C-alpha cells in the first residue's frame, strides 16, 4: 500500500486579471509591500525575511530593530491572509510548507500600477530640447552651405518623427487600461 500525496487541484484562471481584482489586490498596503520587496529581491523571498522587512517599513525602523511582536503580527497576516490571496490570483507562488514566496507571471499585470513616475518616465522634455538644439545646428549648417537646406530639413523631420514615434510607443505601452488588465464586466 502506498501513500499518495493529494494532488493540487489546478485552478483555471482567465488570461488577465480583472480591474476589480487588481484594485482589490493593491488596496492593501501589506500586499503592495510584498510585491515591492519581491521586485527588489529578484522575485523571491522567505516568509521570515519578508515579514521582517515589512514590519520594519510599517514601524519605520531598521530591520535590526524590529521586535518579536512586530514581526509576528506581520508574519501571521501574511501567512493567513495576504499571501494566499496573492497566490490565488496567480501573482505569487506561495509554498506554505517551505515558507517561500516567488513572483509569478501575473505579477507583470500589476507593474503599470506600481511603478513610480520616475521609474517609468523618459524625460521627454530633455529629448525634445536636445533635438531642437540639433535642429538649430543643422539649420546653421545649411545656412553656411555645409549641407543643403533640403537635407537639413529632411534630417530634422526624420529625427523628430523617430523621437515622437518612440514617445507614442512608450505612452501606449505604459497605458493603464484593457491592454494591461482585463475589463471587469
Write up what this structure looks like.
This protein has about 180 residues and is mainly α. It has two domains: about 20-115, Arc Repressor Mutant, subunit A; about 115-175. The chain contains eight helices and three strands. It has a three-stranded antiparallel β-sheet. A hairpin with a 4-residue loop joins strand 2 (about 90-95) and strand 3 (about 100-105). Helix 2 crosses helix 3, helix 3 (about 45-60) crosses helix 4 and helix 7 (about 125-145) packs antiparallel against helix 8. It is elongated, with a radius of gyration of 25 Å. InterPro entries: DUF7344, WH-like_DNA-bd_sf. Keywords: Membrane, Transmembrane, Transmembrane helix. This is ArsR family transcriptional regulator.
Radius of gyration: 25 Å
Main sheet specs? 3 strands, antiparallel
| CATH architecture level-2 label of the largest domain | Orthogonal Bundle
* Major sheet strand order: 1-3-2
State the share of residues found in helices, binned by percent.
55-70%
How much strand content do the residues show? 5-15%
From the N-terminal CA to the C-terminal CA, the straight-line distance is 50 Å
For the record, the CATH class of the largest domain is Mainly Alpha
Amino acid at each position: 500500500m502506498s501513500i499518495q500525496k493529494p494532488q493540487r487541484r489546478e485552478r483555471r484562471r482567465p488570461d488577465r486579471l480583472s480591474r476589480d481584482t487588481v484594485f482589490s489586490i493593491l488596496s492593501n498596503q501589506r500586499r503592495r509591500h510584498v510585491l515591492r520587496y519581491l521586485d527588489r529581491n529578484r522575485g523571491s523571498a522567505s516568509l521570515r525575511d519578508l515579514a521582517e522587512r515589512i514590519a520594519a517599513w510599517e514601524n519605520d525602523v531598521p530591520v535590526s530593530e524590529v521586535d518579536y511582536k512586530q514581526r509576528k503580527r506581520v508574519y501571521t497576516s501574511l501567512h493567513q491572509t495576504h499571501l494566499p490571496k496573492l497566490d490565488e490570483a496567480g501573482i505569487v507562488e506561495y509554498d506554505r510548507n517551505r515558507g517561500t514566496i516567488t513572483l509569478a507571471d501575473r505579477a507583470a499585470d500589476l507593474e503599470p500600477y506600481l511603478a513610480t513616475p520616475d521609474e517609468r518616465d523618459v524625460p521627454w522634455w530633455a529629448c525634445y530640447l536636445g533635438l531642437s538644439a540639433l535642429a538649430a545646428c543643422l539649420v546653421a549648417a545649411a545656412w553656411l552651405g555645409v549641407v543643403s537646406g533640403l537635407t537639413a530639413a529632411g534630417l530634422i523631420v526624420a529625427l523628430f518623427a523617430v523621437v515622437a514615434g518612440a514617445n507614442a510607443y512608450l505612452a501606449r505601452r505604459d497605458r493603464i487600461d484593457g491592454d494591461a488588465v482585463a475589463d471587469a464586466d
